[in-house]
Fold this sequence. Notes:
Blueprint lengths: L4 E6 L4 E6 L40 E4 L4 E4 L2 E2 H7 L2 H10 L5 H12 L6 H8 L7 H15 L9 H27 L12 H10 L11 H14 L6 H10 L5 H13 L6 H12 L5 H9 L18 H17 L4 H14 L1 H5 L6 H12 L6 H21 L29
Antiparallel strand pairs: 1-2, 3-4, 4-5
Helix pairs in contact: 1-8, 2-17, 3-6, 4-6, 5-6, 5-10, 6-7, 6-17, 7-8, 8-13, 9-10, 9-17, 10-17, 11-16, 13-16
The site of carboxymethyl coenzyme *A has 21 residues, from helix 16.
Amino acid sequence: xxxxxxxxxxxxxxxxxxxxxxxxxxxxxxxxxxxxxxxxxxxxxxxxxxxxxxxxxxxxxxxxxxxxxxxxxxxxxxxxxxxxxxxxxxxxxxxxxxxxxxxxxxxxxxxxxxxxxxxxxxxxxxxxxxxxxxxxxxxxxxxxxxxxxxxxxxxxxxxxxxxxxxxxxxxxxxxxxxxxxxxxxxxxxxxxxxxxxxxxxxxxxxxxxxxxxxxxxxxxxxxxxxxxxxxxxxxxxxxxxxxxxxxxxxxxxxxxxxxxxxxxxxxxxxxxxxxxxxxxxxxxxxxxxxxxxxxxxxxxxxxxxxxxxxxxxxxxxxxxxxxxxxxxxxxxxxxxxxxxxxxxxxxxxxxxxxxxxxxxxxxxxxxxxxxxxxxxxxxxxxxxxxxxxxxxxxxxxxxxxxxxxxxxxxxxxxxxxxxxxxxxxxxxxx
Length: 430
Ligand code: CMC
């Protein structure tokens, strides 16, 4: 018998089964062979929240949660944050290798020429209430892009797939900036293709119009570029899974992207950066931190920005962000919430409750404090996560579409409801 197998004895029947092991997995469908009788459906694995289920094979991102390792296409996140740029990293994530100078120029050009949106997209954004959450605007508007680009339905055509990738990466900052300016009642600023990807985004957000000499602060531009690298991709998280699940029905990529944005919006995922700043603001001062920690331990809410499904050691992205915070604060002034955050981290890392559960700061713990110092309103924070993550979503979607093993996503269930019963007319019901 091959050693790459798992031997299972079903104690209900005494029958022994041998299941092949490949890449550290057994196929869940192999469990279906394990039956108590020929008409038995067969054994299933039960895994709410997919805590131990690999839904795909992927070559994009590697994470070792115990060691705190994150690599895109084999490159450590720390090296990319230090030496790469967001658009170069985006090329790496989508195409699998670092670009040559020529490839990077072409990639940058292809994204830059797609930064404009159709005039009707502006009208669409204008239709939202003045106080609409920008993430809600993003979800709706990104979904609406499918109506502007019907060619996106050709999901099995590689040239269309590539074109939609350029469009998606290019248009997210434009839509996000329009959503921001809409909330302030300010006129929209069109993309400026002479600026960098991040510089153009900052310009569309913050250009004061009356000051034609305005240029984004290069320190902020660089910091946001690094933050974009850190947020670009994170394997099979909630939103990437949404992207793959919706994409598996062969829906167009903008519809799938809207679902990924919606998944990211939640406070347990990309909405956590917003929740952290609200939590720190509510705590108010350093001396109130022990009280806040005790409330969390009593089960009164979670410590936002702490904990991760995969990282059971420090989130490597949080480590880079913590360092970056100093550079940003030197340029724009220190955010007073930082002291509360540092105190919260210090106390939590010494507290048995957090130590036993391996709860460490995650990427969202410090990012919100930086965003706030730069001048972003709190409800823009999840949007600042969605823009760079678009690259990861598109890469995951393209990998799935090209994978012959992938089929429409359709999990099973354990039915625990009523057995068959007969319909009773309303007048006969108790
Ligand atoms: N504060 C207090 N307790 C926590 C926290 C927290 N932030 N996170 C987990 N726990 C406790 C939880 O109550 C449970 O305790 P017990 O075993 O006594 O019931 C234990 O730790 C395990 O928690 P879980 O909910 O089973 O863990 P999960 O893997 O399902 O959830 C998580 C992961 C990120 C959703 C969760 O840690 C959380 O809600 N964190 C706060 C929200 C947050 O910061 N999200 C951003 C994640 S990083 C960005 C991204 O990629 O989305």
